[in-house]
Amino acid sequence: MCAILRILWDTGILGRDTRLSVRKQGPDMFQNYQKRRIQILPYDRFLDYGPETLTDEELLAIILRTGSPGKDAITLACQVLELCGSDAGILGLNHLSVKDLKGITGIGEVKAVKLLAIAELSRRMALARFKKDVTLSSPRLVAEAYMERMRHLETEQCIVVFLNSADQRIRDRVLSTGTLNMSLVSSREILRQALLLNASGIILLHNHPSGNPDPSTEDRMVTKRLQQAAELLEVAFLDHIIIGDGTYFSFQERGDLQCRH
Q: Which domains does the chain have, with CATH numbers?
């Protein structure tokens, strides 16, 4: 069997019925089949024209490598995207679990882990753009730095960022996970940490799993209380940013926080 047939065979691009037909009819039948299908072979297109020419389905098929009886890798990839949801598309992988993916016939634990590992690597690549000493001098830059970390979270998470006088991040800390409320976000603890780190300013962030970043009454109460406490200790409370799905709300941009150091 020639090398190209072996690739088609191993990747699952050939369905079960086609495999049986190839076995029966031999190389001549394969040559005719090759002419019809070679132009959509993901591996070849990737190598010849670059990954940007491939569809999401084709890229997923390369990762999956093989299909299952009666179902090639492309079909399997399409089912993965269907599970992700038509609105979310490939981003829906961030909301799936191994159990969810294993619900697709033909995807076992190994394939499921591969897919979720790719999603996690993509998230980390986005985060790697923002190093520890990046200057966070505007709400937009802060939102960009934390968007991929927080936009896909299924529950609310609250983070405080400590900055030096040059608006560079000293460190950040997760304050709470689950919900944002006044009892969990301790102004005293936040400001104690700011003084220990010799931070000139702080930024509060949390996400809305719904994807809508508009602030709630509780969000506004937390912001007001922290602002009042920070003013007493002369620590600049620079912003409270709410992360949505690809969008954000900044109290500073809306004029509710005007403190700068």
A: 3-125 (no CATH), 132-250 (3.40.140.10)
pLDDT for the residue 33 = 46
Average pLDDT, the chain: 82
What confidence tier does 241 reach under pLDDT thresholds 50, 70, 90? very high
* Per-residue model confidence as pLDDT tens digits over 75-125: 999 999 999 988 778 888 988 999 999 999 999 999 999 999 998 888 888
Model confidence at 199: pLDDT above 90: yes
Within 8 A by CB and 6+ apart from 117, the residues are none
Q: Which long-range contacts (CB under 8 A, 24 or more apart) does 247-250 make?
A: 247/211, 247/213, 248/139, 248/143, 248/147, 248/213, 249/213, 249/214, 249/215, 250/139, 250/142, 250/143
d(CA 123, CA 119): 6
d(CA 74, CA 103): 17
CB 218 within 8 A of CB 182: yes
